[in-house]
Amino acid sequence: MAGTAPVAPWVRTRLRAAPGAALVLALLVALTAALAAAFPRAVDRYEDAGLRRLLDDASAQKTTVQVYAPQPGVELPQEQREKALREAALRTAYAKVLAAVERPLVADRTQSSYGVRTANPTAALDRWLPMPTGLPARMSLIAQNGLADHARLASGRLPRVTGTVTAATAEVEAAVTAETAKTLRIKVGSVIHLPGIERAPLSVRVTGIVVPRTPGGAYWTAMPVLRKPSLMVLPTNGGPPEKYWLGALLLPPDAAPAMLGTPGKPERYWQLAPDTSALAAHDVSRLASAIAALESGPGLGRVRERVDPLADATTDLDDVLKSFTQLRSGIGPLVAAAAFGTGTVAAVVLLMAGGLAVDRRRAELALLRARGGSLRGVSGRLLAETAVVALPAGALGLGGALLAVPEGRRSYAVAAAAAVTVLACATLPVRAVLAHRAVRVHGAREDLTSVRPSRRRTVAELTLLVLASAAVVALRRRGASDASGSASGDQLVALAPVLVGVIAALVLVRLYPLPLRRLSRPAGRLRGAVTPLSLARAGRTSTSTVLPLLALLTALTTAAFGGSVLAGVHDARDRAALLTTGADARVEATHALPSTLADRLRRTPGAHDVTPVSIAYQARLGEGSGTEEETVPVAGVDPDGYARLARGVGLGGFPAGELRSRGSGQGSGAAPLPAVASPAVADRYGTRPFAVRMEDGSRVTVRIALVRELTPAVSDMDFLIVDRAGLGTRAARPTALFVTGDHLDGAALRKASGAGVTVRLRAEERARYVDSPLQSGAERIYTAAVAAGAGYAVLALLLSLIRAAPERAALLARLRTMGLTRAQGRRLLVLEALPQALLAAAGGALTGWATIRLLSPGIDLTAIALATHDSTPGGARLRTDTLSLLLPSLTVLALATGIAAAQAWWTGRRGSVRELRAGDAR
Fold this sequence. Notes:
The chain is an alpha+beta fold. It is built from 30 helices and 23 strands.
């Protein structure tokens, strides 16, 4: 009996039948999974870097957690009190304090410390110590652990303890830092005497001078006096201030009991420096909770239970974390908006890829259903053949993302890659089930102009409209970051730009058939067949055009929104830098500048013009007018040059003739000088003449002629601008020079200016505003997301054209047999693609413009543009960027027509035999 021939497995057969399609799907899934997995890790990376930079920039006084306890009570035996201050007891308590700290707060043990210090520095009895105003120097006694590990000897030796130190010990040894020794004129062998309580003064012999190994570490900077002395100023009621020096004497740890015999009120302390390498931005809320628990919660309760009932804890680390949270809450929603836009376009491309596969295999799947194939069986086979390709591709994309971005949480990356893979696997079987629910060989026509939207589609579109409206209203009312200040902001608000683009796509798809129906009859009466045929072909486009249009509109809206955000950030920084300098460069001194300096600056590379200005920041207004005097900066300028400068930089331009003086402005009978004033000064003094006393004591009379909110010479305060020709000789001498030009050379300007002069460049000031990895990282992520969205939009355009390519090739082949020329064929395909391309381009530009206008009142770009710096007047608001609106739309239009023309050219070069064969599957 003949054996039965083996049947080839379904999956292997399908992959062999279409290896190119499988390879393209694998590449698409791998790329999308890699981008999806890399995004959360990239966000974690720049947020972690921003947090660590903020903690590193903050002083150890703010970031260190200070746990302290007073000296043991006097009711205890003296031996027990002394024992509690020795190193062994403090080391045991240090371990208990560390055990009471909750994660994620982790102490850096190399910089953390403990010891005993005098809470009240005592006045030294030695007159040889510096006394600036006659007050004796005060010294803090500090017995801190680990001095030998954190300092090296410059001279002498480290202090040590001989025998057992008690409260009655007459002399102890100490070390001082090199800065303390230099400032207070202390040498090795010096003896400093401190007053005692019911005993003779305590003698402290300096045995060594040390230099910190890491001067910027928390060990030395948590208490700044430990490293260098401070000149303290006492408040006085008039008269010269009283000053004294405050220094530190570093005792060995076991010498701490000697402090009990002094009036310094010794206290025990444990300083916990946070380990910044162990901190992550996503743990900020937990870190704040751990700090709160240690300051006034269960953590403090454990410390008091294990160490001392009177122990307390304090730190400013929670304020540092709060500033980071505020910065992140302003940046997060903007990045989320770009991510949602790109994610939406990528998801649409995956759906289009599945739709393309379903269309390509429509006849095959219909035949399987006609021969008895169940929906479950058919969808299961499709899922298997897709999973064989998508699962390895998704794993490959995930691995590439983990290697490319090694930092960040892995769970989020795995979840994102898994979501992409599941979507890719499910698209083909789900779309096949929806298309072949009923068994039929020939489906009904789905022309765009003939099919009417169903009720389900109407309900779905109305639901999306409600969600988009709610998001827009919420954003306009609350702003881009939610009231709680969460890191990611309100996700619905971040999704608003995408929802607006989705609604626009659905509305345009509904409106698109109307002009085609109205133009079909008039076009039929035109001469020639190309225009009527192209219009008819555009009207017979399948209703599935909603997906490519959705991808294009979402990508264009996201690109316009993102481009406007980046342009707004650039403009805000440039504006803030301009307000700081007043020109391209500002050369200023506290004294009069040399008369030849302006000519030297004009000869520097890139300089075009130099405007001299004399600025008196301490000028007094209202003298003798019966009103309270006030200090307002007064700038003396040359009217022509300064008016040209103000107009050129856009800061309060005015006609030069309005400021030109008609007299000296000095003397009782002189005509008052016209002045340009800030609004607040104009409100107080009106247009009446009033006296101004300059810094050199001269007096002038001015009258406000113009009011301007801004001026180049003075920023962030009220001002008066007058003609310096009406000022006295000393008051008119320039103290500032404003330089305008292109690509100014900062080194050349500083060399020409000389010593004692401050030179600030607009470009350098602008660069200072990008001082946080949180800003720069968010900008890079935003730019990458917009670029990825644009790439997926181009891919969606290609998929939509590929889907119709076989049909267009067959049409051209048939029409060529009827006499259609190659030029007419190219024109036919271009005109056929033009309506949808125009729809996408115009719709994208209008949708982007509308989205920006709708959402701009609720979006403040100050956080991402200026970070912790002061914002510009009026805030850094989102504004429409024309280039970001038009360039993507024109690119889509050019690509669509270019691809159609290329397809017509390629089809014309090929033979028409295959396209003309009846029944050939395409």
